[in-house]
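worker-3 :: picked ATPase
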Amino acid sequence: MIHDYNDLIRLFNGLFRDAENTVLVAGAGEPLYQPADGSCAEDRVIFANGFFASALHEVSHWCIAGAARRRLVDFGYWYRPDGRTADQQLEFERVEVKPQALEWIFSVASGSRFTLSLDNLSGGRSGAEELFRRNVERQAQRYILEGMPRRALLFQQALVRHYRGGEPVRASELHFFMPSAAQSA
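worker-3 :: tokens ->
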């Protein structure tokens, strides 16, 4: 299956351009959420370098952000690049559970590959990577079984119609493969 980010732009903008005054935009560099300002009348979810997965990730953040956060550049979140301390990494993992759970659901809905992101290759490890993985998995399943934010549900439904012919994402599709001790030896 071909995953063209232009399909995501078309689906997202079809749902949210008029209803939420928000557009999805392929950027040339780092991702950014930019609320409407003097240079643009629409809020912009700008994803990195035309990457499909980046678009899904940035949309997931937008789907979770409340009205007040959507008035702030990058939703008012701090971001420390690669090289975070172990404590900073724990905070990153805490705030990334819900967005990464939604990104995973969006990935399954679009038939694309999801990669859990610790996003700190050269920095301090929190020592809780397995806990983070389990928390993302549990949250993704919870969203499927108990419901997700309205904008996330609308986007997921659009992805399912476009990529899966309407076949819904099931909680059973949201499990990380964990090799047994015998397989990893």
